[in-house]
Amino acid sequence: MTYIRTVNGDIAPSELGMCHPHEHLIGAPPTIYATPDLTLDDEGAAVESLHKLKSVGGDALVEMTPIDYHRDPAALARIAAQTDVHVIAVTGYLKAKFSQLLVAPQSVDDLTQRFIHEIEHGMDDTQIRAGVIKAASSLNTITESEHKVFVAAAQAQQATGALISTHTEAGTMGVEQVELLTGLGVPPNRILIGHLDRCLDIDYHRTIAASGVYMGIDQIGKAKYAPDADRITAIRQLIDAGHAEQLMLSMDIARRSYLPAYDGKPGFTYLLEKFVPMLKEAGVPAATIDVIIKVNPARALTKAS
Fold this sequence. Notes:
It contains ten helices and eleven strands.
């Protein structure tokens, strides 16, 4: 039996539909780093945002807020229940800036056992279970504490079959993440390397693609990093090289200023309303787009019992 683990129970892979694989609904950095813009604490705003996503054809979202970023499993379950959008939560940690003080006192086994427990039994004293493991690296380096998380993530992945989804700071260290995880025995098709559109270098992308891992083009709509036209060029190059079945698209919305519910923009609907039409105009077939936004996330998120 295969299934996808959401905050409100397991679903068949065929039920997932169109999925944003790297987003945020509720959470905030550790207090010392918190700002009003980075504090997503309004469940009503999250519900409104998912209703809008659903209205344009969005069906699911991986909520990538980890342990060290004020994750709230109970809130996610309530939000999902009110919106009919499938929400998948994560276990794991973000980069060392946020997680080091929490990770340092723990052994790899401590971390591994927590990740397994949160996938199989529940997060934060709830019975709400995670469906994905998160690991992260810093700019141009994997620190000692981050390495510990990657090792634990690999061990938990092998025990549970869950996908490992990563944060790469400004798109760096993607190759090193792949080498570390696969070297620890994680199958490439159980790895999603995130934020690769923060480094729009086709040779870099081709090196990562050759490993067989999933690739996150997940900063869509963020012109401060790159125009979406450049993202489309990168996506077309990877499709033309035969890597359509490794690509996933998302927006990594983690600020109030990106969400209309907080008087920001563009909001989750931008991907389907604006970016997908741009892909079609650029010559990407509708069937290929469906593979990227529906088939690939379902395949990546599927676990076997």
